[in-house]
Design goal:
The complex is a heterodimer of chains A (about 110) and B (about 120). The termini of chain A are far apart. By secondary structure, chain A is mainly β. Chain B is about 0% helix and about 50% strand. Chain B contains no helices and eleven strands. In chain B, strands 2, 4, 5, 6, 9, 10 and 11 form a seven-stranded mixed β-sheet that branches. Chain B has a four-stranded antiparallel β-sheet with strand order 1-3-8-7, with no helix packed on it. Classes of the chains: A mainly beta (about 110), B mainly beta (about 120).
């Protein structure tokens, strides 16, 4: 199975900050990558598919980029509702998740 | 509305088996694959596998190939995930989620509410 590695594992940030989370795949997944947000006790929420396609209803401050083995999720202007854990997921063949990045209040 | 409704919480002893269901409504059942994902307490998401609801074909993550079986009953728009030889570290919340495999930008867009499995002697 393809391994997905996120960095950092935890990120401390303040409201208004620009936040970047990186996801690396152990081999190329082309653009077959999704990003999810999960808050404690809640279901994962799909934010971005195919590396950069923002899902309907997701605020435009979220953006995704990358291809091959390196991807980023950027939050431009962190809002209070954005403190959560974020996961990347490979969508190519075996749909493995990264280990998650927790965005916490600085 | 589109929803996936899972069966209720389970408590099992080590070595037992469990079968969790996921019933779809609000869309054409066979147009979407169903995936299973688990999350142990305080841990991340772990992808277990998928089932093609139209053909019944399955694909499992390596960690689950030997002891997880996914099946479906198209007459009642329901997918089942059965695990055998349970261990205490299988204690987790198990989610089903759908994937529009025919779409060019598919991912897991709708999730079931989760089924809590506790494995304890």
């Amino acid at each position: 199975d393809i391994q997905m590695t996120q960095s950092p594992s935890t990120l401390s940030a303040s409201v208004g900050d620009r936040v970047t989370i990186t996801c690396r795949a152990s081999q190329s997944v082309s653009v077959w990558l999704a990003w999810y947000q999960q808050k404690p006790g809640k279901l994962p929420k799909l934010l971005i598919s195919k590396a950069s396609i923002l899902q309907s209803g997701v605020p435009s401050r979220f953006s995704g980029s990358g291809s091959g083995t390196e991807f980023t999720l950027t939050i431009s202007g962190l809002q209070p509702d954005d403190f959560a854990t974020y996961y990347c997921q490979n969508l190519d063949n075996y749909w493995t998740f990264g280990q998650g990045t927790r965005v916490e209040v600085k | 509305q589109v929803q996936l409704v899972q069966s209720g919480a389970e408590v099992k002893k080590p070595g037992a088996s469990v079968k969790v269901s996921c019933t779809s409504s609000g869309y054409t059942f066979t147009d979407y694959y169903i995936h299973w994902v688990r999350q142990a307490p305080g841990q991340g998401l772990e992808w277990m596998g998928w089932i093609n609801t139209r053909s019944g074909r399955t694909r499992y993550a390596q960690n689950f190939q030997a002891w997880v079986t996914m099946t479906r009953d198209t007459s009642i728009s329901t997918v089942y995930m059965e695990m055998s030889s349970l261990k205490s570290d299988d204690t987790a919340v198990y989610y089903c989620a759908r994937d529009d495999a025919a779409s060019s930008d598919n991912a897991l867009d709708v999730w079931g509410q989760g089924t809590t499995l506790t494995v304890s002697s």
